[in-house]
Amino acid sequence: MDSGPACPLLPRLLHPMGGLPLMMMEAAVAALGALAQEHRLALFRLLVQAGEDGMPAGAIADALGVPNSSLSFHLAQLRNAGLVTQERRHRSLIYRASYSAMNGLVDYLTENCCGGVGCAPAANPKAERKSA
Fold first, then answer.
1. Phi, psi (5° rounding) for residue 130?
2. What would the pLDDT profile of 46-103 be if each residue is shown by its tens digit?
3. Top-level CATH class of 38-110?
4. Residues 6+ apart with CB under 8 A from 112
């Protein structure tokens, strides 16, 4: 069996309804489900932008204007989907985006892209934005 691109969404068991790997499909559905909410998507994007240093929960709450109780719920959803990691640093909890999971999800979504032909370059949305 072809192992495909290296990805944290393994093992690659085939789904009974088609050729897609079962565990990868379940992990992709969990990740996309976790991101399919406005606050969680904003939270994940914030952590991606924060880089490897991550952010403490208080700074995330301040940046997003989300109450701590709601933030805890959203962080738990992202952690359960494998998109966010948590580390205790002294008295703070530091949260980081899991770049391997993010890249694995993108790899999974684009695995059979474009009928075997190279994909078109991604649009640069920042280039199209106009500032006020």
1. -115, 135
2. 999 999 999 999 999 999 999 999 999 999 999 999 999 999 999 999 999 999 999 9
3. mainly alpha
4. none
Q: Measured between alpha carbons, how far is 74 from 91 in angstroms, rounded to an integer?
A: 21
Q: What is the pTM of this model?
A: 0.73
Cα(81)–Cα(41) distance, integer angstroms: 13
With tokens 């952010």, the residue in question is 55
Pairwise CA distance, residues 68 & 33, whole Å: 22
Question: Tokens at residue 42, please?
Answer: 């904003």
Cβ atoms < 10 Å from Cβ of 126: 6
In 1-132, which residue ranges form alpha helices assigned H by DSSP?
Answer: 22-35, 38-50, 57-64, 68-80, 99-110, 125-128
Query: Are 1 and 10 within 8 A, CB to CB?
Result: no
Q: Using alpha carbons, select from 13, 15, 21, 66 the residue that is nearest to residue 43.
A: 66
Among 1, 36, 20, 5, residue whose Cα is nearest residue 100: 5
